[in-house]
Specification:
With 342 residues, this protein is α+β, with helices and mostly antiparallel strands. It folds into 2 domains: 194 residues, ApbE-like domains (T-fold); 84 residues, Orthogonal Bundle (T-fold), CATH 1.10.3980. The chain contains 9 helices and 14 strands. The protein has an 8-stranded antiparallel beta sheet with strand order 1-2-6-7-10-11-12-13. A hairpin with a 4-residue loop joins β12 and β13. 40% of the residues are buried.
């Protein structure tokens, strides 16, 4: 065996001590909770991270920058966005990869949900936003029938980076998928910066990274639609995403008879649910399925989710009864049997 000379031995000892001290100091700087809320995507976005003090603001800023970048691709409210270009021209060449991915996912779930989720429902949404609710029942039927001729995800063609509509006058809305997709992009960014404990909440589309540093899971409260100051259920999640669709926030008409969740198969507001909450592996799927389940109603919605891996649902029916999938017990920590509704 070769004998290590005294100077070399001393250098090794010094290096080992340096590594030990550096590792000790790094571990001793414990992560702290930091959060920021900003107005984005027409709602309030809250990002919570557990990070070290020296770089937390840079990471939070980076998360909100991701939202701005992705909104330029998928926002129907931005006339310069990629989706707006598609709606205006009926064609986008060299489309951003994110738009291609969103469109392909949307087409896939249009099939999975038997048409309950369809991003090409935009022509019908425009009718309602422009005052269709003021028209006679007969006129509503006529206009909706014409608009429905322009709907159908199968009429979106995706060829590499080229996206096109196969029928003139078609338009798409990403309102039921973009927010969840963007939340997932923020989560991906946080992970790339070494964050192991985080929550991103974009107006009810929520995704998490792990649990809290002490092992405590994230608690997501679902409000009672009949009394928004009360919670009707609470869920514990760790790495999952949660999204809720409800008919008690946004309406087309002042009488609140026509809400914003339109059944793309009929052209009218879906009326079988008050709210639908979905827990899934990511916010994109949770967002899509929360809308889909709401449209399908309690029975068909539960049936759909029970046949999907890694997905659970909590539904409040129009009669204010509670419906849950069989595997929801591992997430739910508080619940009631009805909303105590009106």
């Amino acid at each position: 065996m070769k004998k290590i000379s005294s100077p070399a031995f001393k250098i090794c000892i010094i290096l080992m001590l340096a590594i030990f001290i550096t590792s000790f100091l790094a571990c001793s700087i414990s992560v702290q909770r930091y959060e920021e809320t900003r107005e984005k995507m027409g709602t309030f976005v809250n990002i919570i991270i557990y990070a070290r003090e020296n770089n937390y603001m840079e990471i939070l800023d980076g998360g909100f920058t991701i939202i701005d970048e992705q909104s330029k691709i998928s926002s129907n409210y931005d006339p310069e966005s990629s989706i707006s270009e598609l709606n205006r021209e009926g064609l986008v060449k060299s489309a951003p990869g994110e738009l291609v991915e969103i469109i392909n996912i949307s087409k896939e779930y249009n099939t999975i949900t038997n048409g309950a989720f369809d991003i090409t429902v935009e022509p019908v949404l425009k009718l309602w936003s422009e005052g269709l609710w003021k028209e006679s029942e007969e006129m509503q039927k006529q206009k909706i029938a014409e608009a429905l001729k322009l709907t159908g995800s199968s009429m979106i063609d995706v060829d590499g980076s080229t996206i096109s509509f196969t029928k003139k006058g078609m338009e798409a809305t990403l309102g039921g998928v973009a927010k969840g997709y963007i939340v997932d992009k923020v989560i991906d960014f946080l992970k790339s910066r070494g964050i192991k404990n985080a929550l991103v909440n974009a107006g009810g589309d929520i995704a998490t990274i792990g649990s809290k540093p002490d092992g405590e899971k994230w608690i997501i409260n679902l409000e009672n639609p009949d009394n928004l100051e009360e919670k009707i259920a609470s869920f514990e999640v760790s790495g999952e995403a949660v999204a809720t669709s409800g008919n008690y926030y946004r309406y087309f008409d002042p009488e609140k008879e026509v809400h914003h969740i339109i059944d793309p198969r009929s052209g009218y507001s879906a009326n079988l649910c008050i709210s639908a909450t979905v827990i899934a592996k990511n916010a994109t799927i949770a967002d899509i399925l929360a809308t889909s389940v709401f449209v399908l109603g309690p029975q068909d919605g539960i049936s759909l989710v029970e046949n999907l891996d890694g997905v659970e649902a909590f539904i409040i029916g129009s009669d204010r009864s509670i419906y849950m999938t069989s595997g929801l017990d591992k997430y739910i920590v508080n619940q009631v049997t009805t909303t105590g509704g009106k």
